[in-house]
Amino acid sequence: MGRRKNKGRNVSGVLLLDKPQGCSSNHILQKVKRLFGAAKAGHTGSLDPLATGMLPVCFGEATKISAFLLDSDKSYHLKCQLGVSTTTGDAEGEVVETLDASSITEQDVLAVLPEFIGEIEQIPPMYSALKHNGERLYKLARQGIEVERKARTVTIYDIEYISLSTDDQQRLILELKVECSKGTYVRTLVEDISKRLNSCSHITALRRLSVGPYDGDMLTIEQLTELAEQGFDALDACLQPIDSGVADWPDVRLGSDAAFYVQQGQAVMVPHAPTEGWVRIYDQSQFLGLGEIQDDGLIAPRRMIRAV
């Protein structure tokens, strides 16, 4: 039997979606995929249902760069309530501990934040998508099962203090902006900061501001729904080019012969190319894909983009 053909348009590019609160990343991905009538689409790392903000959606050939966006740095704006911890580390969980946090001051917070900048060790939360013996941790957590998790090293590039205030419900709310590496659990970071303040906490609001090179210019599902009424051309005009996701990588320009061979899967020699790592490959004008510098100095094609 032949493979069942994907129904839908062969559209390629990256959409910077502003994920709404209260739905899963996969649910909103499927909604966007239907709006675009796309044959193929994938997101670049889930956001919790509670979280909002930057969710790059890769269509068609752009799915070949989604793994690199998954591995890229992120930034978040968050609010957390001090003095109350929950099962999930956010407002969706059940309260498990309450402590008096009223004596915590702005000076206390400013004194401990620098301790969390740089490489730190984190123990992933039970309410996470990591797997244990093939089962997602959050599924085990919902059954009341807790398993040992290994600490992971992540990098916190910056924590910007915004405010410490009491809201209209007399809850003590800490507001921060965090820039971090892939694999960082912001819920865990906030819990660890609050422990250092001899307290506990949970996240009440979380918004992802940036993913890799993408910062701003997000579109909501409402905006996309309006554009869809104008037709596919209006939607496609919103897409970022495929190579924008790796815009900070070095690039190499190939002559017509080398471009032909690299598209046949052969490694090619490029004068003055970088000596190691990954590169963006172009012919004179078009993005051809991604390559890696081999030990012999040749550029080997790794993720080649088919012309759409």
Structure description:
This protein has 308 residues and is an alpha+beta fold. The chain folds into 3 domains: 13-72 and 213-244, 2-Layer Sandwich (Pseudouridine synthase), CATH 3.30.2350.10; 76-200, Pseudouridine synthase, CATH 3.30.2350.10; 249-304, Archaeosine Trna-guanine Transglycosylase, Chain: A, domain 4, CATH 2.30.130. 20% of the residues lie in helices and 33% in strands. The chain has helices spanning 25-36, 66-70, 106-112, 137-142, 186-196, 221-228, 232-236, 256-263; strands at 13-19, 41-43, 52-59, 74-82, 84-86, 95-98, 118-122, 131-132, 135-136, 152-166, 172-180, 201-211, 214-215, 251-253, 278-282, 287-293, 299-304. Strands 1, 2, 3, 4, 7, 10, 11, 12 and 13 form a 9-stranded mixed beta sheet that branches. Helix 1 runs parallel beside helix 6 (221-228). It is globular. The two termini are 26 Å apart. 32% of the residues are buried. The model has no long low-confidence stretch (mean pLDDT 91).
